[in-house]
Amino acid sequence: MTARAEWTKLRTLPSTAWLLLALVVATVVFSALSVSAVDIARCPSPTECFEDTTRVSLWGVRVAQLAVVVLAVLAVTNEYASGLIGTTLAANPRRGTVLAAKAGVVTALVLAAAVPGVLGSLLVGRMILPGNGFSAANGYPPPSLLDEPTLRAVIGTVLYLGLVALLAVGVGTALRDTAGAIVAVLVLLYTAPVLVQLIGDPKWQHRLEKAAPMTSGLAVQATTALERQPIGPWAGLGVLAIWAGAALLAGALLFRYRDA
């Protein structure tokens, strides 16, 4: 019953459908732009390009996750802004159950929208890459779900977006303010990639990439030269899961012990 109530509330928000559509479209469009920007002609030779074509094909999630953050935060903070949180807790005073249902519904919607977005990105990559010289003849077979690293990258990218949703739900519950929560999550996600470019010490760059939620989580997209990555694919996704779990725990504790 609690999950159904949360689904009804989220479904009736006008922004929900638009944000889910934005997630799909932005994933595909920005991935297409990323793929279009790489060309084997810019490399010394076809064998010296070293592009991870699967990762390039899935680049759009770096922008599309903005829609996930906004959707997940609004799912929580909209109730505080409208005063509906009092009605919700009167109907179900078990706050942990309410938060779990809200997080579950938001994550399920994000995962459902992430699948076509990610698969669409992979399809766009298969269509564009050969025209840019990344063909099987040059040693770059098109990204395929039959290839285990590509399949792992696709599944991992979908799970990445689901974990970002949980992270945003946790932060939104803790802060209860729409603008503040969105900014806080975006800072968590996007600060590390900027700092990595500013830090000159490679050792500290690797440490930051291994610990930050976005850079570690997106390690799951890597399909080539894994030994040169700061962190392994599933280990990186695990780091993001820890961030999401910590945010949810903080949100749950604050939700339980303070006034609505």
Walk me through this protein's architecture.
This is ABC transporter permease. It comes from Plantactinospora mayteni. Keywords: Membrane, Transmembrane, Transmembrane helix. The chain crosses the membrane at residues 61-91, 103-129, 149-169, 181-200, 234-255. With 260 residues, the chain is mainly α. The protein has one domain. The chain is 74% helix and 0% strand. It is built from eleven helices and no strands. It starts with a helix and ends with a helix.
In short:
This protein is mainly alpha-helical. It has eleven helices and no strands.
What's the SSE blueprint?
Elements: H1 2-12, H2 14-37, H3 53-57, H4 61-82, H5 84-91, H6 95-128, H7 148-175, H8 178-198, H9 202-211, H10 213-217, H11 233-257
Helix pairs in contact: 1-6, 2-4, 2-6, 4-6, 4-7, 4-8, 6-7, 7-8, 7-11, 8-9
The largest sheet, given as strand count, sense and whether it forms a barrel, is: none
Q: What is the C-alpha radius of gyration, as a whole number of Å?
A: 20 Å
Order of helices and strands: HHHHHHHHHHH
How would the global form be characterised?
A: elongated
Low-confidence residue ranges: none
Number of domains: 1
Looking at this protein, list some descriptive labels.
single chain, 260 residues, mainly alpha, 11 helices, 0% strand, transmembrane
